[in-house]
Amino acid sequence: MTTQPKHETDFAALAHDEQLRLLAELSRAAVTQYELPAGCDVELINLSENATYKVEHRASGQRWALRVHREGYHSDLAIRSELAWQRDLRERQVIITPAALPGLDGDVLQKVSHPAFTRDRNVVLFEWETGSEPGVNEDLRAPFEVLGEVTARMHQHVRTWNRPGWFERLTWNVDTSLGEQPHWGRWRDGIGMDAAKQDLFGNTVSLIADRLSAFGQGPDRFGLIHCDLRLANLLVDGATVKVIDFDDCGFSWLMYDAATPVSFYEHLPEVPDLIQHWLAGYRRIIDLPQADEDEIPTFVMLRRLLLVAWIGSHSETDLAQSMGHEYTSQTVDLCRTYLSRFGG
Known about the structure:
- The chain is of the alpha+beta class and 344 residues long.
- The chain has two domains: 8-127, Phosphorylase Kinase, domain 1 (2-Layer Sandwich); 141-342, Aminoglycoside phosphotransferase (APH), C-terminal lobe (Aminoglycoside 3'-phosphotransferase, Chain: A, domain 2), CATH 3.90.1200.10.
- The chain has helices at residues 8-13, 16-31, 76-91, 141-160, 174-178, 195-215, 256-259, 271-282, 290-294, 296-313, 318-342, and strands at 41-47, 51-57, 62-68, 100-101, 110-112, 121-127, 222-225, 234-237, 240-243, 250-253.
- Strands 1, 2, 3, 4, 5 and 6 form a six-stranded antiparallel β-sheet that branches.
- Strand 2 (51-57) and strand 3 (62-68) form a beta hairpin.
- Helix 6 (195-215) crosses helix 10 and helix 6 packs across helix 11 (318-342).
- The longest helix has 25 residues, at 318-342.
- The N and C termini lie far apart (65 Å).
């Protein structure tokens, strides 16, 4: 009998614990492809689209962040494009963001093999940045103003940056977020979805699509953005806010970056006030038209439904399991409010 070759889809079919075990083995192999001290510990700190590990040399106190890319999410060029934008932002002192470090062969994008995988995994090692993630229970008004400034500087940079000709990133529009070929899965497959929710959410998606079609994708409204500026991707170090994890950066509406900071808690009553603080910071750098501000609730709603889809398609992750049915249920009132406000 001929043994069939293993395919990458075999990995997705494995039990979650087995996936983690294989990824841990691969991450330890990846460390050997960099000029790091011997005896580094490798610890998983986040599993989302990718697996991120803390690499620590306890004797010296040195730390690095190792990212093992999920197979099939981004091409090699797309990863190099992300790193190119991140590098230019840092070198021009637009924002503080971690530097990608070269492997022993001098390339920042490393290929790491494992017997269980038919294809090598892409791996990137970053310098470790100090700071802590802001918590949803903290007073976030001042950090949101700083974040608004940081976001505006990034938007300003993109307007004049001469991107490499090979630059390639995903586009996040209505179709690729909430359509039938979405990057993060279908909102209809969200956890706890039923017929009533499907009808309500579907009406909301239709209204979002209509409003954003009218809003348009002119160069003053649509361009290269971070696309995932949620609290987990910010590090507060004293008075400094640093931006990490550009893995979802791509082409979308600029004001989508106003919605992502409130990801996963869009339903809380303090969110409108936090967005006002974000806008105050943003307008210190860029004179934002009122029409753009007025459309931010649409981007908050789009992001919310996109996360319903993400939770459904990433149900094995700790974050998705912590949100689950409740997040979908809490989205019902947000949809009703949005339809009442903008659907008339």
